Each structure stands twice: as structure tokens, then as C-alpha cells.
Amino acid sequence: FRVPFLRNAAFAGREQDLAGLHRALAAGSTVGIHPAGLTGMGGIGKTQLAVEYCYRYKESYGGGIFWLNAAADWQAEFAELGAYLAPDLAGEPAVRRIRAAADYFNAHPDSLLVLDNVADPARLRQPVTPDLIPSSLPCRLLLTTRSRDLGDIQPVEVTVLPQGPALQLLLRALPRQPALDASSASHADACAIYRLLGGLPLALEIAGAFLEEWPEVTLGGFRQRLH
Question: Nearest 5°: phi and psi at 144?
Fold first, then answer.
């Protein structure tokens, strides 16, 4: 299990997205292996959803779960992974370490490879080296991308958070939680903040952190700051 993020204790909602993503990845066992892609605008929560999926379904992947930063150099990322999987190759040329990564995935089709922040999904069909073409690996592949042009990749569209889970994220600090109750005098302000932030998880995460750090700022006051 090589995921460079801790599980987010504030993760809320997304149950249908998680279930849909798991179905998309599991479908490869019967209809041929195709990657699944979490797609959506920046700040919508694609990476957080992928992280939660990795932790929640880790027992489904006996070969392990491995995470690469697809916004970085792919050769360097796969070479680093190869050295992790075959430590005796540390210091060897990148092409040998990448071959070790390919060999591992070919021997462990029950593993999951996550490629986070893929700019162009067509890149999966291009060779990293002659030994490794990501789309040809027999393991499950999960990518996150802002692109809507996914080709034969199974898309899972990530949309804004519904109000209920969004308010839980915004008001996660214990002193703020009374505002979750619709009868609270501050509930309307919390709902207005949700609308101002457009239901975007990243914006709600940042706002929730501010509200936790500055308890003397009322929800009404924070709403005015946003305006």
C-alpha cells in the first residue's frame, strides 16, 4: 500500500461515487480491463475521492495499491516505484527500475495503480519505455483528470457536494456543529456559505479550516467576508 496521503477524517458523502467507481474498476474482470477515470473541474474533490477509495477498498487488491503523481515526469515516477518494488535496483538506470515496475504489475494483476492528475488521458496509451505502456498493464488503473475526453476509459463524473455532506465538512469543528440543526439561528448562514462556495469540496475544506482556527468569527461574519 503506497499512497502518499493520510486518510481524510473529514471526508463526507460521496457514497454513490465510491460505489460507482468500484463497479467501474471491478467490471474489468468480466468485460476486459479498462481504466476508470475520475473526471471533473479543479477543486471538485477527485484526488480526495481517490484517496478515500484506496483506503476503503484496500482489501480488494491483493497485489497492493500504488499511487503515482501523473503531473510529474512519468519515467521518474515509474522508476521510483520500481526501486520501491525491487529495492536491490536502487541506483540502477531508470529503464531497469521501470522494467521492474512493469514486471510486478504483470505478475500481480490484482493490484491497483492510481495515476493522479493526468493532463491528457491519451498518454496512457503511449510507452513510458518499451517495457511499459500504462494502458497495457493487466492491473486495474484509476486516473484523476480534468479532461472530459476519456476515449474508452470508464468515466466517473465527480460533481459538487450536496448540501448535507457539504455542511458536515464546513462545520466539522465541534463548536460549529450546532449550526447543522435547521432550527439553529446560524443554519441559514451556513447554507448561504455553502451556496457562495458552490459546493466545491476544496473551498469548503479551506473555509472549514478557517472557521476551526478562528472560533470568534461568527458564521454570519464569515458570510459577509465572502461577499
Answer: -110, 140
Rounding to the nearest 10 degrees, give the CA dihedral for residues 142, 147, 149, 152: 0
Give the count of beta carbons closer than 10 Å to the beta carbon of residue 165: 17
Give the burial class of 117: count Cβ atoms within 10 A of its Cβ; 0-12 exposed, 13-18 middle, 19 or more buried.
middle
Report the C-alpha gap between 114 and 131 in whole angstroms.
Answer: 19
Rounded distance between C-alpha atoms, residue 196 and residue 6, angstroms: 29
pLDDT tens over the chain, length 227 residues: 999 999 988 787 788 889 888 988 887 554 445 688 888 888 788 999 999 999 999 999 999 999 999 999 999 999 999 999 999 999 899 999 999 999 999 999 999 999 999 999 999 999 999 999 999 999 999 999 988 777 778 888 888 888 998 999 999 999 999 999 999 999 999 999 999 998 888 899 899 999 999 999 999 999 999 99
